[in-house]
Amino acid sequence: MRERFRALDPHLLWAVLALIALGTLTLFSAGRNTPQATIWLKQTLWNGLGMVLMLLLATTDPRRLFRYSFPAYLLGLAALAAVLVVGRKIGGSTRWFMIAGQTFQPSELMKWITLLYVAQRLGSRPADEVGRLELFGAVGLVVFPMLLIQRQPDLGMALSFLPILLLIPLMKGLRARWLLALGLLVVVGGFGAWKFGLKPYQKQRVLIFLDPSADLQGKGYQVNQSRIAIGAGGLIGKGFTSGSQTQLNFLPVKTTDFAFSVWAEERGFLGVLLALGLFGLLLSRILDAARVAHTYAEAYFCAGAAGIFALHLLVNVGMVAGALPNKGMVLPFFSAGGSSTLSFFLALGLIMGILHRARLK
Amino acid sequence: MDPRQQPLLRQRLGVLKVLAWSLVALLVLVYAWLQLVRHGEYRQLALQQAVKVRPIPAPRGLVLDRNGHRLVDNRRALHLVIQREDLPTRPEVVTALAEALVVDPQALARKIQSYRLAGKGRPLVLKENLDEAGIAVAERVRARFPFLSVEVAPRRVYLGDDLAGHVLGYVGEVDEELMKGKPGVFHLGETIGKEGFEAAGNDKLKGVDGQKRILVDQLGTEVANFGQIDAAPGRSLFLTLDAGLQKVAQDALGTEAGAVVVLDLRDGGVLALYSSPSYDPNLFLNRLSQDMVDRYLANKVTRPMVNRATQGIYAPGSTFKLLVALAALEKGIISPTTPIYCSGRKNFYGRDFRCDKPTGHGSLSMVQAIAQSCDVYFYELASRMDVDDIHATAEKYGLTERTGIDLPQEKRTRIPSRAWKKKAVPRDPKWYAGETISVGIGQGAVGVTPLGLARFYALLATKGKLLTPHLFYGFRDDQSDHLELASFTPPKDTPLDPKHWAILDEGLYEVVRGGTATASALKELTMVGKTGTAQVATFVDRAHYARQAKALKDHALFAGYAPRENPQIAFAVVVENAGFGASSAAPIAKKLVQYWFLDRLQHPLPAPRGKLVDPFAPQQTEATE
Predict the structure, then answer these.
(1) Cα diameter, chain A
(2) Best mutation site among A120, A171, A287 for testing chain B: the one with the most B CBs within 10 Å?
(3) Digit-coded pLDDT (tens) for B205-241
(4) Which of A74, A268, B319, B561 could form a disulfide with B461 if both were Cys (CB 3.0 to 4.6 A apart)?
């Protein structure tokens, strides 16, 4: 048993434990005097379950996991297709399965399975032996589940698959014509999406991001209140459970998307510095794992995982500050939610397994 | 194939690490900007939306009649409401609720939507002022829609219904226009008087609203109270009105349109002021339905919102002859005993002016002319004067000004003069002598309010004292229920010659003793007064009467005072389209006098709760001695 615990990487473990502590305090404060008063307790249960899964994966040989990545990918696609048919509809989108009274969002896990499978395929040979066709194939493997998710619709979740494509420049380096092609894709895709792909509420989000003051009572209200909460926090914050924006419910959806605003209001800039520092350490350690990994597939998985964590951090923390559009992307270890929490712990477990194997050799 | 042996991969992973820390640094900068640089601004915004100053409405004072009978009371009212946090969002719920409340679903949806956008602090009111049946319905609906609640709020109750609608007026929420006109005086949603004494005496009744600084949550619900200044309730007050006499006036007019004014000669207190058709102020406390607007506010046929006693302009007819006689006496153009011969008609300036009595009155002195209401006599007087002489006399005795009663929008009595015509009729500014002849019998351009007329007869009763009519009697001492008498504008003395007065008084006495109103004489005391019959005033809709193919019957008037020996009250009665003054207006005056001096003392109204000290009370018995 002690052997098993030795598989846990201490750097990652402490960073994650610290972040969980901050997140739990945040949820305790955010849920006070609301119908969600016990949400911190529920989240603690998810965190506990997540850590058990993390421990299990850390002590598993990563190669075994890569071996199951293809059937897992197929299963994931099937689940995404199934959720469109039999999923529970909440707030206009169909993203959840109901299992034993709990909602389960398959797309959260699918993101990591896709990363696992793509890393396995691209990492089977050295980078310079991977042909263009295989690269396009990898892009297709990422885009297909994204399209299924956008059917739900859940643009934020679909976009969180994009960091997986980071693997291509990591293997081949950056080329000017790729950037050009990307730029072209963004312009054409953006125009096409605006014209045909985006739902009205998504268009509205973009418009509000461009001019938040235009609609302070409607959709711009949430971000505006979040900015007030953050700004009012100041250097040292209003104090634990003393933020007026949080406690008087001016801050919307404060246990999920806007949980970080609660932390920023009550613990101030110093608290923000602490949280962002911990996230920095987390990213840094995951990239370290990529450097010491024994196989290309393992290295690619770690790099992609760092990308996914970084995107969540950027979009959520940037969004609640009004610096990015309101995309509805959760912040790991702060936002309450079972599927996402378990998925993050599973990924960390795999990374710890990779680090553990590297240490053993 | 060990990736650790790949320098390019290691290099790129190094770049990613730098990018990761750059991302963290970027976010730190964003938060430093919000939390350090712009902290003050956001702190202010957070305070502004969480800390509110809310008014605490002060209950308005009660209104009592001169004997302490309640005319206006405060009661608890029940409203069916939805709290902001409970607003239904699903359209099918709104539709079902609309069906249960028997209202238009689309209208309800619009109401909810506009409230969602604008309403703050107060819940959405679905049904106001629930009566017993309404409460029963509300409870049934609430069983199906538990998000509804019943709210208790203070409410004005006008106890006499339409007994004194025009006197009391009603209250409502302050208009936005009024608020704009007087910044800082009113606050949104404040209850103010809209009409009648509620409006004129608003400052006396309203009290001082308190305020509290409170912490509110996002829904505007009070979370904590940082301290408050309590509201000072408005003081209750007495009106000079006598509820019993007012009731007599109401019953006497019945369904006829018209007005009754009774003044207390001691101080100018208004004992009764009734305008018919009246309205029930209670109806105006709810949001007005279209039916209410049609029946009251927009009713151009009977104009029930017009206070005919203070805003109705009537040709005074023969009641004006006293002023013409007075003008002639003061001008010295005739001796009161000099007879003038009436043959039933007389020609002035080539036009025939007819008397009421086609066969003629024969030779008449001034007293006889007043008693018989001979038109030819007064044509003759008018022909010997200029219209400006009559106007000057009217001005001297206060007839050309507003009476100054404490009711809003009192109309000014109109006594024509050359200057007046120049201004009023620019098409034809010249005054014709023939017009003066009409003025001699209170026709033509002459127009008086019943209140102005009563005030002129009060002047005759008091041998020349010009009273300022008022409704405000004094405040109630809330400990003892006693009256704290207000200070009144003292009567103004006018240079009325006692010799002239004696002739007019004699003339008025003869009207009732042997003249045009003998049927209205009382055995027990002497009431004097003058009948009048006048062409219909212009403020009613002539077209309506034409449509009804109904003859434009004359208005009947009677003005006078009682008792003759020791006058205590003066009165004016107008009955619209009733024909001859003696047969319809004078009997109403008789009923008023009968009640005030006889019935009231024999069958007093049940005493109100609490003690009262009316400084005038002991004098009331004098009339029966």
Answers:
(1) 59
(2) A287
(3) 988 878 888 887 776 667 888 888 888 888 889 999 9
(4) B561
Q: Which of residues 197-236 of A touch B (CB under 8 A)?
A: 217, 227-235
Q: Which residues pair with A323 in a beta bridge?
A: none
Nearest CA in chain B to A249: B218
**Taking chain A, what is the end-to-end CA distance rounded to the nearest angstrom?**
20
Residue position matching structure tokens 């002319």: B369
Q: Which residues of B are catalytic?
A: 318
The chain B residue lying nearest A274, using CA atoms, is: B28
For B1-6, what is the mean pLDDT? 76
Residue B541 has pLDDT above 70, yes or no: no
| Model confidence pLDDT, tens digit, residues B339-362 | 999 998 898 888 888 888 888 899
The residue type of B419 is A
Distance CA A311, CA A330 (A): 10
Which residues lie closer than 8 Å to B14 by C-beta, 6 or more apart? Answer: none
pLDDT over 50 (residue B462): yes
| Nearest in space to A210 (alpha carbons), one of A223, A226, A196, A193 | A223
Helix A220-233 and helix A259-292: axis angle, to 10°?
A: 80
Q: Rounded to two decimals, what is the model's pTM?
A: 0.66
Per-residue pLDDT at A214: 52
| Cα–Cα distance for residue pair B89/A352, rounded to 1 Å | 48
Q: How far is CA A107 from CA A104, A157, A259, B584, in A?
A: 9, 7, 21, 92
Residues 6+ positions from A12 with CB-CB distance below 8 Å: A282, A285, A286, A348, A351, A352, A355
Locate B368 and state its tokens. 């006889």
Query: Are B60 and B207 within 8 A, CB to CB?
Result: yes
Q: Can you tell me the ipTM of this complex? A: 0.92
Burial grade of B59 (CB within 10 A; 0-12, 13-18, 19 or more)? middle
Partner A contacted by B551 (CB < 8 A): no
Note whether B21 contacts A: Cβ–Cβ < 8 A.
Answer: yes
Residue A68 exposed, middle or buried by CB count within 10 Å (0-12, 13-18, 19+) = middle
